[in-house]
């Protein structure tokens, strides 16, 4: 009976570990204006709007802790 209980426990743990749902990382879009060599914003010829470089950035959870004492 002990062997059957161990086998049942092993099977239930193996099946249970497959159904763990991972949380997707949170992201946000960050856009920065494109500038030329002189530092002026670059405008799109067709639309007349300023060109932008956009990237998806992960948002990390900020951990709280105690402040480190200054020497």
Structural key phrases:
alpha+beta, 71 residues
Secondary structure layout:
Layout (H helix, E strand, L loop, with lengths): L1 H17 L8 E7 L18 E7 L13
Antiparallel strand pairs: 1-2
Summarize the structure.
By secondary structure, this protein is of the alpha+beta class.
Description of the structure:
The chain is 24% helix and 20% strand. The protein is of the alpha+beta class and 71 residues long. The chain has a domain at 25-61. It has a two-stranded antiparallel ribbon.
Number of helices: 1
Number of strands: 2
The spatial strand order of the largest sheet comes to 1-2
Radius of gyration: 27 Å
**Percent helix among the residues?**
10-25%
Assign the structural class, choosing from mainly alpha, mainly beta, alpha/beta, alpha+beta, or little secondary structure.
Answer: alpha+beta
Mean pLDDT value: 82
Point out poorly predicted stretches.
Answer: none
> Gap between N and C termini, in Å?
64 Å
Largest sheet: 2 strands, antiparallel
């Amino acid at each position: 009976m002990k062997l059957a209980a161990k086998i049942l426990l092993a099977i239930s743990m193996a099946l249970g570990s497959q159904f763990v749902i991972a949380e997707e990382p949170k992201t946000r879009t960050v856009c920065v204006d494109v500038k030329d060599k002189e530092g002026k914003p670059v405008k799109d010829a067709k639309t007349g709007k300023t060109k932008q470089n956009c990237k998806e950035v992960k948002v990390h959870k900020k951990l709280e802790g105690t402040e480190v004492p200054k020497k």
